[in-house]
């Protein structure tokens, strides 16, 4: 696990992630919220009528790479999810999800919180 984290951290330092390029306006993306700590953008492959990604500006590769100092940032992502859900009119409910690693279908090595809503969610997920 440590080797994977070290490799991910080196990759993150060597080149920008897809999300960093969108935040820097080097690639297109529909940003619907932003502040000094994160951005929220529409997923290009939505799995629900509303599918928004809340992405920290700090390039943390995955949940496995979080440290105690990241706790306030992760809490902020959830506060932003609530704000965006309200902005999007998700008054009947919504789901938030972090995917972590290949078996969870994490496809970008940059932590991001999925906000899904606009339809009834099934259980169990996945």
Automatic annotation (TrEMBL):
It comes from Rubrobacter xylanophilus (strain DSM 9941 / JCM 11954 / NBRC 16129 / PRD-1). Gene3D superfamilies: HIT-like. The active site is at 112 (tele-amp-histidine intermediate). A motif (Histidine triad motif) lies at residues 110-114. This is Histidine triad (HIT) protein. InterPro entries: Histidine_triad_CS, Histidine_triad_HIT, HIT-like, HIT-like_sf. One of its GO terms (molecular function) is catalytic activity. It comes from the Bacteria. Residues 18-126 form the HIT domain.
